[in-house]
Amino acid sequence: MSEEFKSGFVTIIGRPNVGKSTLMNHLIGQKIAITSNKPQTTRNRIQTVYTDMERGQIVFVDTPGIHHAKNKLGEYMVKVAKTSMKDVDVILWLVEPDTSVGSGDQEIAKQLSGVDIPVILVINKVDTVPREKILEVINTYKELLEFAEIVPLSALRGQNCDELVDCLFKYLPEGPMFYDEDTVTDQPERQIVAEIIREKSLHALNEEVPHGIAVSIDQMKKRKGKKFYDIDATIICERDSHKGIIIGKQGAMLKKIGTNARFEIERLLDAKVNLKLWVKVKKDWRDSDFLIQNFGYREDESDN
Alpha helices, DSSP H only, in 12-71? Predict the structure, then answer.
């Protein structure tokens, strides 16, 4: 470990669906946060750890996208996103390469104008537009806020991500490691497994159902002396009609979700998995404080 070892916390903020989880997964080199092309995929604050034994350790805090809340779960997500702007060393604000700044980004700029923390603007998805458009986007955002740095990149393709890491180390204070060098997340395995099942559901289902689902892990047991797990999980939805869609004709949709989830869970756990899925209806769970907490969305960020 070098004498000038740096360590600190970096929060990633932005509107829903700008690629926050994709960026974090790429930087860590391992999939921790779930991704999908549907907004509001990330519901909890997820901490992941990037360690370079020569330079230092960056603890990334991935947050739910800041959006207009429609229910208690939505309010919780916005609260988590806003509170994670405090008590960090650097803020990464992720935007898309668009010169028209919408109300969501205007609101984020307003929030950031009051913080005394270096803000790095990350323009994601630069592989989708011509180079001259990126310069226009940079000029547009410079008028909104003063940034410590502006980094254009493609999280999906890994383009310019190393430059972003270099920038981050520039602004981190000297300090000790917070986690062991082989730690990549503070998320409990059960929570990651639940999120994988939710991700595969998001990918497989249509627009209406996904926001109204949660996943609870009822049982997760390792067989004695074997690299084999038995996992029972329940997909919770809000309506009887949703239950039918999730199960599908002769159970085809549920089987598809289970097969896709099992494949990724086996990679995560490096073991064989016997996964059993059920579907239950809990009407309006997103407006119930008890049920929101019961499904792992806790204000104190404690383990399930």
Answer: 20-28
DSSP symbols for 59-80? EEEE-PPP----SHHHHHHHHH
Strand order in the sheet with 119-123: 46-52, 56-62, 6-13, 90-95, 119-123, 149-152
Structure tokens at 178: 């917070």
Strand partners, 152: 123
Entry pTM: 0.59
Confidence of residue 114 (pLDDT cuts 50, 70, 90): confident
Q: How far is CA 47 from the centre of its chain?
A: 9
Q: Give the pair of three-digit tokens for residue 115.
A: 């913080």
Does the domain at 6-171 match CATH 3.30.450.20? Answer given as no
Domain 189-294 has CATH 3.30.200.20: no
Would you kindly state where each structural domain of the chain is located, as residue ranges?
6-171, 189-294
